[in-house]
Structure formats: structure tokens, C-alpha cells
Amino acid sequence: MHDVDEEDIRVLDLEDGRIEFTAAGRKFYTGYFGYAGIDIRQVKTRADLDRACHAAFPYLFTYAEQRLKKCPQTLEIRALRAVVQNDTARFERIYRQLQTRHQLAVIQPSGGHPAPT
Fold first, then answer.
1. Cβ distance 59 to 35 under 8 Å?
2. What is the chain's percent helix, strand, coil content, to nearest 5?
3. pLDDT tens-digit readout, 40-96
4. What is the rounded average pLDDT for all residues in the chain?
5. Three-state SS for 95?
6. Average pLDDT for 91-103
């Protein structure tokens, strides 16, 4: 079992059958559902959430692309963007770069200071 970061919890199930979005959930679902024209304030139960997720699914990659544009453009993020954009050639090129970087990884001595050159 792994620890769950509070940011990972987006929806709370209430005892009366309703759901409540956490701050992270409101931020995520407002943007995601917005692409499908769904008002998050109308999503009040788990069944509503399931229907909203199903309706918004065709917009998932569009939403993901917009979120990824805001991230620092590391090789990993660039690889994810290539996947979202269905650009197999670019993904494979970046993947090879990631593999090379992993193979050449410098192990830092204890204390976290860079190894002398």
C-alpha cells in the first residue's frame, strides 16, 4: 500500500449519497468538465460524476494537452505531450533520449553534492 497525497484526493463521498469536491478536485474537474460544457456545480452524486466523466472523456486529451503546456518542459513532459498529440515519431525520439539519460545517470555521493569533474 502507498501513502496518498492529499492532492490526489479529489472527491469525498458523503454519508447521504452526495459527493463533495476537494479544492484539488474542484480545480481539476472544473477545467476538465468545462471542455464538455459541464458545470461542476451540477455534479452532486457519484452517479452524476460517472456520467460527467463519461461525457467529458472525448475531451480528455485536449484537457491534458492544455495542462501539460503549463508544466516545465522536461523530457518526461515532452514525451507525454507527444503521446497526447499522437506523435509516435516524436515520442520515440524523446524516449530514446530518456533511455540515454538514464544509462548515463551520474550517481551523486552522499551529501547531495555533484560529483567532481
1. yes
2. 60, 5, 35
3. 999 999 999 999 999 999 999 989 898 898 989 899 999 999 999 999 999 999 999
4. 84
5. helix
6. 89
What separation in angstroms does the CA of 16 have from each of 13, 24, 49? 8, 22, 15
**Is 102's pLDDT higher than 60?**
yes
CB 75 within 8 A of CB 98: yes
Largest separation between any pair of C-alpha atoms in the chain? 63
Instruction: Quote the pTM value.
Output: 0.66
- Are 24 and 10 spatial neighbours (Cβ–Cβ below 8 Å)? yes
DSSP string, 43-92: --BHHHHHHHHHHHGGGHHHHHHHHHHTS---HHHHHHHHHHTT-HHHHH
Nine-digit cell string for 85 = 498529440
